[in-house]
Design brief:
Helix content is 27%, strand content 40%. It is α+β, with helices and mostly antiparallel strands and 98 residues long.
Length: 98
């Protein structure tokens, strides 16, 4: 798998922002087929930082339903894989500059 295909997008939430400031941990949505070694290589290549640790979790899809004029609609949100990357001391990633 190419490193460009591994990282899908960074996760930007309040909890992730606190982790970034306090402990240098960054969260990314990654391809479900990617393993920890591929994720580590992709982050180091794209951002030029040293990665100490990678933790992954597959977030399961959620059942969703709503009532409309057409009737009761059921569906499921897709599952995705999330990776929490811990950087070496002194390294950081600027995700806010575009």
């Amino acid at each position: 798998m190419k490193p460009a295909d591994v990282l899908v997008s960074p996760v930007m939430t309040e909890k992730v922002n606190i982790q970034m400031e306090r402990s240098g941990r960054y969260t990314f949505v990654v391809d479900k087929r990617a393993n920890k070694l591929e994720i580590k290589k992709a982050v180091e290549e794209f951002y030029g930082v040293k990665v100490n640790d990678v933790n992954t979790v597959v977030v399961p899809g959620k059942l969703k339903s709503r009532f409309t004029k057409a009737g009761f609609i059921k569906g499921i949100k897709p599952s995705y894989k999330k990776a929490v990357v811990t950087l070496a001391e002194g390294d950081s990633i600027d995700l806010f500059s575009i």
